[in-house]
Write a structure and sequence with these properties.
Helix content: 25-40%
Distance between the termini: 30 Å
Number of strands: 14
Number of helices: 12
Strand content: 15-25%
């Protein structure tokens, strides 16, 4: 499924100015996407617990204090985006932090033990400098329910008082995958946790980390955050320092990047994180194991460059996912980042069917 080049939104200034620019540019789309996400949560399809729309938004509203406490500027940006788009801040929590919000709903609704996770998404890799001509990579697909694909967007931001950044995201979401002007990259894999709470959702965490200068600073921020749900976060900086962290609200084991690539998909690898992982549908778990093994094999030896990583995201048997019933999950896009050189390539939709674009830095 091909479409015109990946959409790019440029915004600069105060948190309110950036958020309002995002909301105005895609107002009707954000409203429709938010309504769809609220309906999915209310249906119980992803949580095991049907709820009314009012109940969904009450839970989301209860998470706003944690977002403001985590980062007041990002909270102001989210509220400005919501106001300009014509949605409530609670709806912005759902549309932006959907998969973490699902973890929160599971915990708040008290049906964690009965839940079987149906969300999935993302094959991600960290490649060390020594395997990549002296300049390593963070690369990943972004897999989600196929209804999300049309909403994929690139943000090029120049926020007042923080590093400029290029951010792969969806309309209405503060950010999902990105690299800042300090040469720090952040990527993610979704996980499903039993220990969700009324904390801060992952897009705010990603954007907060992208205010940092080094991987170590970003890791410290992640380890100290009051998280709403479970994600694996991958971090790489221009000095070659990198980490992969299975960040559940209650436990956060860290793997440091060594001499060989780190690969992560959508199941926990650390036993402590596994104790708070929601049971997953066996078909999705099989997909996650297959993607982990395939990506590991594809990076087993030799020098790694951008083209090799483009090809990895396009691998047809496991990694480049096609939407199929009953889950309708697909590879909605992909990103390849090289922090030492400042290169960022991104792709809309399934990489097997679409081209990667070089995304220039903000202001270029």
């Amino acid at each position: 499924m091909r479409r015109p080049p990946l959409r790019v939104l440029d915004a600069a200034g105060s948190p309110g100015e950036i958020g309002a620019a995002h909301g105005r540019a895609h107002a009707a789309e954000i409203r429709a996407y938010a309504a769809d996400r609220v309906q999915i949560v209310a249906s119980g399809m992803w949580t095991g617990t049907p709820l009314t729309r009012a109940d969904v938004l009450d839970i989301a509203h209860s998470m706003l204090p944690a977002h403001e406490s985590f980062d007041g500027d990002l909270h102001a940006e989210m509220e400005a985006m919501a106001g300009a788009a014509g949605i409530s801040p609670a709806e912005a929590i759902v549309v932006g932090g959907f998969t973490d919000f699902v973890d929160t709903v599971r915990a708040v609704a008290g049906k964690v033990e009965a839940a079987v996770a149906t969300e999935d998404g993302c094959t991600a890799v960290l490649v060390p400098d020594g395997r990549a001509g002296g300049a390593g990579f963070l690369a990943q697909t972004w897999d989600m329910h196929a209804s999300a694909t049309d909403h994929v967007l690139m943000l090029r931001l120049r926020p007042a008082g923080a590093p400029a950044a290029r951010i792969f995201t969806t309309t209405g979401c503060l950010g999902q995958i990105g690299m800042n002007s300090e040469g720090l990259c952040v990527g993610i894999n979704n996980l499903a946790g039993t220990d969700g709470g009324r904390g801060v959702a992952w897009p705010s965490v990603v954007r907060g980390m992208l205010k940092c200068a080094t991987a170590g600073e970003a890791l410290d921020l992640l380890l100290g955050a009051e998280l709403a749900g479970a994600h694996n976060y991958l971090i790489l900086d221009r000095h070659g320092d990198g980490f992969s962290t299975e960040a559940m609200p209650s436990v956060r084991p860290v793997r440091a990047l060594g001499d060989e690539p780190l690969v992560h998909t959508n199941h926990t690898l650390d036993a402590t994180a596994g104790t708070v992982q929601v049971d997953r549908d066996p078909r999705l778990l099989q997909s996650s194991y297959a993607r982990l093994a395939t990506a590991t094999d594809l990076l087993a030896d030799g020098d790694v460059n951008a083209e090799r990583l483009f090809d990895l995201t396009r691998e047809p048997s496991a990694i480049c996912v096609t939407a199929k019933a009953p889950f309708h999950i697909e590879s909605s896009g992909a990103a390849v980042m090289r922090p030492r050189t400042g290169d960022f390539w991104a792709c809309w939709g399934r990489p097997a069917e679409n081209d990667f674009q070089r995304i220039e830095a903000p202001g270029v």
